[in-house]
Write a structure and sequence with these properties.
By secondary structure, the protein is an alpha+beta fold. The chain has 16 helices and 33 strands.
Amino acid sequence: MKNLGQYFTVLSVMMLILLFVSCSQQKEKLPVDYVNPFICTQDDHGQWLPAALVPFGLVELCPDTYPGSLIGDGDFAHSGYNYSDNKVRGFSHLHKGSSGGTKIHDRAGLISLVPFSHSPVNNFFVNPILDIDKQTETAKAGYYSVCLLQDNILAELTATEHVGMHRYTFQNGKTAKIFLNSGNRNNSVSCTIAEPSRLEGSVGNKYFVVEFNSPVTAAFVWDGSSVEEGNSLDNQIGGGLICEFGKPGNKVLQIKVGISLTSIDAAKKNMEAECPNWDFNGTCKKAATAWNDILSKIKIQGDNEEDKTIFYTALYHTCFLPVVLSDVDGSYPGLDQKIHKAEGYKHYDNYAFWDSFRTKYPLYSLWIPGVYSDIVKSLRDIYHQAGNWDPFPDTNHPPHGFSYVVRGEGGFLPYNTCRHEHMLMVMTDAYFKGLFDISLESVYPHIKHEAMIQMPERYDSIGFIPARPDQTGEYSWDNWCVAQLAKELGKEDDYDYFIKRSDYWKNTWDSTIHFFRARAADRKWLDFPEDPSVNREKYTYEGSKWQWRWNVLHDVPALIEKFGGEAPFVKELKYFFENDLYTAGNQIDLHAPFLFNYAGASWLTQKWVRKILTEPIVQKYGTHDFFTEPIFDRVYKATPDGYLEEMDCDYGCMAAWFNMASMGLYQVCPGDPVYQLTAPIFNEVSINLDKSVYEGEKFTIKANNLNDKNIYIQSASLNGEPLYHSWLKHEEIIKGGKLVYEMGPEPNKEWGNGRKLPADR
């Protein structure tokens, strides 16, 4: 028996060794392997799309689903795609991504291809509908595929910055056919067969060149009502071109679509530079490599695989928008309707700064500062080329529901930007982080003008925007930013003027109830509900009186004073969270859990940030009203319904919030380069700093003994020296180094109180 026992002991050890060797030989998952493009694509849960694209690529090649991409049924598919749909209208190249702001086209994208082989009746071309096999639907970073049921066609998509590449596998003996149309059937399309294997055309100012790996054997024109023989159409609304390719022997039809916003010739050059051959697999691999290269700049370690999936998919989502508008040679269309050339940088467009300015650009500044720097140059271009800076009527100040978009003369807009509101905050933040490789003097007059449009001079006599305490607060922040830039330039008069305006929020604070409150132009207080959690739309936008209560991001110490000091401030903020008044699904109070740091209660920031990141929470309020019944769910999940109901991402704002909060870094006030600290949800986070921009190589955050119970910071050190305060300056992080936390199950209520936030920069 003794020998038998020894045998089993030896056998067990050998099996453990073999298991260890086997596991060690398994391929380690790369950051790109964690990306799940289907997260947040279902119904009204994020409004993303599983497009084939590369980081910041102009081309976002994706199916437009039915009925989600139609106006009447499109509330759940701002991007044109809804995971709940099982039909598609085609595969289009230009999309808007996740935004709750404005509709793009009819929710569908632009420049659409519809593969088919059957003989359809004419009404098929009015609105082609194709059934898909959801079981075959696959998406990875840079790749999408699905099987079209009626003709049993395997559709595969990949992309470069300016090129969409299609691969359609047809059944033997079937004639391959492609229907090219605008995507949005209310848009006109022009197209002609320039060569047997090439089409050229445009949808508005979106120019395209289409190349096939087989020659067109027959061509027909759909004019919106009938099919006729022909090989071209000119500005045809609802029209399209039908191309047949016979019966390809290899069953595979490959297509390349090059796009430019400057010319057909530029579209061709973009294709030649980025996709010169027919190597679909190679193009797909390059796209995945591009994604892995950018995602790998942040490394996370921990045991929770679901959180890693959420993290890297969120990081992935922040790179959909803005897009690279410039061609491979740098040419791009300006707001002045002239063609410009970006020398030494990429020109970006398609913005929605409200609300992405809150989180996404602070993330960029640590993660991809080179991209941020190019965006600054692009915004300089917008400032210099803008001809229409007056979106607000002289007699009224509309709510945020009015899209603030800077245009050229005559309202010209080269691409589908949602809104430029708070653009100056992004510029200010970049300046104070050293990412401003342009002349501040050259853009300051435009930044100043932007602030004056948002809160015109006519309000100076009363010191607030009538009936809009929400806007008064946000535009006070804008004015604070301008004041900081004026100070940098030595413009003392401007500094005094704008710093005074940065305090206008105080004029909407009712000290008798400790809430922001609407006032009429005669300074009389307007109605206020007994229960401030109701009365959503009146005087505030996308948030109740409770959510807007914390909206002083540029001067939190002054807000604390308005409450009567730290103790009553913490008491009210605790009540806010403990009574489920925080709305994680919208942007107004995203910073709220980090405000405990300012008031000597850092442990409560640690508690609530982790809870929001990892646990189901009660949500009473959606985007535009209170739910009939409160929702109890996780805010972030690794599923198609990955966000809370009604939670749009606003161009990566919510995704970036998860990224920053889960790393334990959050910048409450863009424009002021200070990050609030809290415990990360990962054991270790490493940010590989861009050595071409910053002096440091890596900044690491390590949480020793972190687990589901040990969620509180007991002590901290920065580069081996004790750290007693709960914030770090940007300049400290970019030097590189190591932030180490010792974690425990009970809060250390003294940690984080070693020093107050600096009074000024």
